[in-house]
UniProtKB/TrEMBL annotation:
The keyword Lyase does not apply. Pfam families: CN_hydrolase. This is CN hydrolase domain-containing protein. Residues 1-20 are annotated as: Disordered. Residues 5-243 form the CN hydrolase domain. Keywords: Hydrolase. InterPro entries: Aliph_Amidase/BUP (IPR050345), C-N_Hydrolase (IPR003010), C-N_Hydrolase_sf (IPR036526). It comes from Streptomyces olivaceiscleroticus.
Length: 294
């Protein structure tokens, strides 16, 4: 059995915030012309906002670029995904919340032309980012292709994010990134670590130079790097993920050995987690699509 998911990660520089969505549509159409069997297209963090740096000037530009989720930008992106018949993950956008706050929000549009999922970054990179924090983790079902979870850039530094997404049944974690700093090397380690300890695919797509440091990569459920960008140059990473590989690794173990999701016996005592005012309950220590989404 196999559940193939052909993906394309566009390591590209950010687009100017004032550029029309039609220009972005041209980019996506050109990508699909080269890779016509692609089912999921993903872009970096804040790809459509064109804002880098921090401080009052950058925040003012983000305010100008912000739109609510039912604004014209989302409607145009939904129409684009429907016209092209692909799962479109245009990176993240600056979302204006109901009380005027700013969120860094990842979007996913379905091949039917609808907004299928939105995820607000739970861990903004403080003190450098002006965003309000999201309050929930998000996964989305890609029809018969599988289930995808979302994390954004600095979220990857918090192991709780990937663990929760895996528990919610994510087989792939898409991590759009706008890393312009020297810590991309550490992020590459985290991408592999999050894949290994949760037995999921991780897709980390970073902004290209000159703003970003690039080095996007795709990691499999055993932590192997399937493909990667060697530098910050604009490029497209393509791969065909077999999502049944997630079930194989979880069933037989990483390297045929470690099965972390089968660690507990129901006779084991619960493990208290005082940091979270919670616990690991052996009776519920199972990931899977039966988990209710938040």
């Amino acid at each position: 059995m196999s559940r193939p998911l052909p993906v394309a990660l566009a390591q590209a520089p950010p687009r100017p915030a004032e550029a029309p969505v039609s220009d972005f549509a041209d980019d996506v159409q050109a990508l699909l012309a080269k890779f016509p069997r692609t089912r999921l297209v993903a872009h970096p963090e804040l790809h459509l906002c064109g804002v880098t740096g921090s401080g009052a000037e950058s925040e003012a530009r983000l305010q100008d670029a912000a739109e609510p989720l039912d604004g014209p930008r989302s409607k145009a992106l939904a129409e684009l995904a429907g016209d092209l018949g692909v799962w479109l993950l245009p990176g993240t956008v600056c979302e204006r919340g109901p009380d005027g706050e700013l969120f860094n929000t990842a979007l996913a549009f379905s091949p039917e032309g609808r907004l299928a999922a939105s995820y607000r970054k739970v861990f903004p990179w403080r003190p450098y980012e002006p965003y309000a924090a999201g309050d929930r983790f998000v996964v989305a079902d890609l029809g018969d292709a599988g289930r995808v979870g979302f994390s954004i850039c600095y979220d990857a530094w918090f192991p709780e994010v990937a663990r929760q997404l895996a528990w919610l049944g994510a087989e792939v974690i898409v991590n759009p990134v706008m890393t312009t700093t020297a810590d991309r090397a550490q992020e590459l380690v985290l991408a592999r670590a999050n894949a290994i300890v949760n037995q999921v695919y991780v897709l980390s797509v970073n902004t290209a130079g000159p703003e970003g440091t690039g080095r996007s990569l795709i990691v499999d459920p055993e932590g192997r790097v399937r493909t990667e960008a060697v530098d910050s140059a604009a490029t497209v990473l393509t791969d065909v993920l077999d999502l049944d590989d997630v079930e194989r690794v979880r069933t037989y173990g990483t390297a045929g050995l470690s099965r972390m999701w089968e660690q507990f016996d129901e006779r084991d005592a619960a493990v208290e987690l005082p940091l979270y005012d919670g616990r690991i309950d052996p009776r519920t220590w199972r990931p899977g699509p039966h988990r209710a989404r938040p």
